[in-house]
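Record type: monomer structure entry
Structure origin: computed from sequence
Chain ID: A
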Amino acid sequence: MSGDIEHGLAELVRPGARIALADGCGPPAVLAAPLSRVAARAGGVRLVLGWVPGPAPAIDPDAFADIRTVVGGPGLRALIESGHAHRVPARLSATPALLAGPLRPDLLLATLVRGGDGGLRFGAEVSWMRGLHDAGVPVAGVVSASAPHADAGPPLTGVSVLAEVEGPAGSPFTVRTPEPTAADRAVAAAVAALVPAGARIQFGPGRLAAALVAALEVPVAVDSGLLADPVVDLDARGLLRGTPSSTALYGSPRLYDWADRLGRAGRGTVRPVEHTHDVSRLSTDPGPLVALNTALEIDRDGQVNVEGVAGSAAGMIGGHPDFAAAAARGPGLSVIALASAHRGRPTLVDRLGGPVTTPSHDVDVVVTDRGTADLRGLGRAERRRALDALWAE
């Protein structure tokens, strides 16, 4: 199969071309190594990557003239820190503009799923890929028999199929969520009290998010960037209103099977980033948006860092500032939830150890295992005193 894939790629990749490799938990992993060999022979090929939460793609960085990522993620940490890849700082809602302009690719490589209507769609993630397809960028990929049918959009047109895969080769990366700690549950209980019945909630992955969703006792809709396993629990408890909206799935086979059943019933849960991260839509759709975001650290002015400390490249901007801004400008609430300390050090700092991901004016409420600081309506000095008091308790 590898030889056939390589031959197919050689027909599509031209010298000096820019190639976008689809990301998320369901990337076309089997294309990475053949693409490297084809790129090395063609010469001058540039590579664009998105969010890589799992294992790094098996690419040879020396095969490419340039590698850039518009999101980042743990799987790209080594490439970024070694200087082989450049991380372009951008909130997720800005990636379509980047990919339509200075980083527009000549070809998109993706994992595809065949629906009941016979049409091909994206699988576990849509993100910025649907926009490229709709703008006329050629799409080629592998058709997976084991990826979820989660794409809520219509069938893709003009797609080149390089191979059919199944089993582990075509399955999304599995994410296991650790059991929440006592501190996580304390934070979650305080946050749950802020969520009114009928709200739309946004939450990310991880053990704190799992605790947050488990603590909810009112029916809610999910309008988020990612869908993680807790949404399945929410549905099982009868607290999920309508069909969730996200741009990517991030979880275990339990989540992927659940999303696949919905997708094949005509209720796809994964949409383009132009929809999921549209700040205007998020702030005005019916039902207040409560954005439940975490952070690595927060400074005394309320500025938030989620991208990394001490030079680490493991974090990413993602949709954090999009959802915080949307919740703060509408009738909802922008909540930052974090433990009061990490590895023995306070998470409230005088100066952030990394870039400002989300500005202080898009933070309404801060919740820790020590309590809650409501910053709405406070001046700068009052906000500092409120945060100092929260960490001092």
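Annotation 1: The two ends are 61 Å apart (CA to CA).
Annotation 2: Residues 191 and 310 are 29 Å apart (CA to CA).
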